[in-house]
């Protein structure tokens, strides 16, 4: 029987892992409603942070990597490596998201609705050095718009 590291620390049987839910499990998924916290200016894709119904902070990104990243995280996690809690959310609403910059093409101004977003657990107390923006470019608003629906 093959054994892997489940969530970065606890040994788990491969057969017991849920590749649908990924690291964090079903209870670790983002829970609506989502409340806007801040928009991020750095990085190659539009990004903002929200708080969910359970009080957890999430970093949301849109673009061509949203679906792929959620899958890749599960694959790496299933192989026994540490992986961030990451979920693909096909649609939702962000309350209080007004006067947005880069993400305004990804979140409807009046309703706060969005589609095709990658949610990653965003605890500022954990791994803040891994959020370095060194070497990351920025995009223009026109390229950010295109990346929301890719």
Highlighted features:
7 strands, five-stranded mixed β-barrel, two-stranded antiparallel ribbon, alpha+beta, 2 helices
What's a quick, concise take on this entry?
This protein is an alpha+beta fold and 150 residues long. It has 2 helices and 7 strands, in the order βββββαββα. The strands form 2 sheets. The chain has a 5-stranded mixed β-barrel. A two-stranded antiparallel sheet has the order 1-2.
**Approximately what portion of the residues adopt beta-strand conformation?**
25-35%
The count of DSSP E runs of length 2 or more, i.e. the number of strands, is: 7
Distance between the termini: 40 Å
| Number of separate domains | 1
Helix content: 10-25%
Describe the main β-sheet briefly. Answer: 5 strands, mixed, barrel
Basic shape: globular
Tell me the radius of gyration.
Answer: 16 Å
**Count of helices?**
2
Structural class: alpha+beta
Task: Calculate the mean pLDDT score and round it.
Answer: 79
Strand numbers in spatial order across the main sheet: 3-4-5-7-6
Parts with pLDDT < 50 across at least 5 consecutive residues: 1-7, 127-146
Order of helices and strands: EEEEEHEEH
Explain what you see:
With 150 residues, this protein is an alpha+beta fold. It has one domain (3-18, 31-123, 138-148). It has helices at 66-78, 141-148, and strands at residues 3-5, 11-13, 34-40, 47-51, 57-61, 86-95, 113-121. The strands form two sheets. It has a five-stranded mixed β-barrel. It has a two-stranded antiparallel ribbon with strand order 1-2. β4 (47-51) and β5 form a beta hairpin.
